[in-house]
Design goal:
294 residues, alpha/beta, Conserved hypothetical protein from pyrococcus furiosus pfu- 392566-001, ParB domain, 2 domains, two-stranded parallel sheet, 11 helices, 11% strand
């Protein structure tokens, strides 16, 4: 039943003992916290300025709810776990404080893990920021991938706007997961091949190129491949040529399945062809059997 106009509705208040028990059921408290004591750590994604400007221009305080924060220093420093965009909107419209769900006792790893779990299913989340949060949270696979990428002279980022920065995070993770009897991951040889054959050329870090070369190295051992000839063959066509050959070979196949052949597998097949062609008739025994790729 709605409250009578002008009369404050009754609020159910738990007895002290029940209130203590109920309080213990939850890992956070809700309180009004000054915006001036809120900080944003490195595991957060950058602010989306257009989204913030639009939200501030159409600000509706009834829809803000609470933002999640972690107590770093009681009363003086709180790290935003989730709600950074709303924080910026509130500052723009002149708010001085906001209601927060306050968590205590978190390490930075705990905070990064919280951020990842809260945002991992959001379509607007760039995979790099999820990956970075996982790494900071102590995820061993993410840390291993970061190490391998850096060992090959590259870095990971939200996009590939620099010749040494890889933005295809999911492709990197998939190449890392390509294990076989002769190697525990195929990311390292894939990136090494890209560095030697394509570095600096447009499309070098295309998702399908990374996965395709990962698939190539998942199937063939180091001893089977004449690396110098493979590099020569790849250099001749470049990353865009390699991907173009693969797409042309799959013309007419359904785009979702490519007739049962994935685009990365076809990229690997084209790499086999280039390897064998670069060998010429020097030694037919060194030629790779492309039928092993299926």
């Amino acid at each position: 039943m709605n409250a009578t106009k002008g009369v404050q509705p009754a609020v159910a208040v738990l007895p002290d003992l029940e209130a203590k028990r109920a309080h213990a059921e939850w890992p956070f408290e809700v309180g009004l916290v000054p915006l001036s004591v809120l900080i944003i750590d490195d595991y957060q994604r950058p602010p989306h300025h257009e989204f913030i400007a639009h939200g501030a221009a159409n600000f509706d305080e009834t829809l803000v709810g609470t933002i999640d924060i972690s107590e770093r220093s009681k009363g003086s420093i709180y790290a935003i776990l989730d709600g950074q965009q709303r924080f910026h909107m509130m500052r723009q419209v002149g708010k001085t404080a906001c209601y927060c769900s306050i968590y205590t006792g978190m390490s930075i790893q705990d905070e990064a893990g919280f951020f990842y779990r809260k945002n991992k299913d959001r379509k607007s989340m760039n995979p790099f920021y999820s990956f970075r949060a996982r790494r900071i949270a102590g995820d061993e696979e993410a840390q291993a991938i970061q190490h391998l990428v850096e060992m090959e002279g590259f870095a990971l980022g939200p996009n590939s706007n620099h010749e040494d920065v890889i933005g295809a995070i999911r492709a990197v993770e998939r190449a890392y997961a390509m294990a076989s009897e002769h190697r525990d991951q195929s990311l390292t040889p894939a990136l090494s091949t890209i560095r030697e054959a394509f570095k600096g050329r447009k499309g070098s870090f295309d998702s399908w190129i990374i996965q395709g070369l990962g698939r190539f190295w998942q199937i063939y051992t180091d001893d089977e491949v004449n690396l110098d000839r493979l590099i020569i063959g790849l250099q001749e066509v470049g990353p865009q040529g390699l991907l173009g050959y693969a797409r042309d070979a799959l013309i007419g196949q359904p785009r979702t399945t490519y007739g049962g052949i994935s685009l990365p597998t076809q990229v690997a097949r084209e790499a086999v062809k280039l390897h064998n062609r670069a060998l010429g008739n020097v030694d037919r025994r060194e030629k790779l059997d492309g039928k092993r790729l299926s």
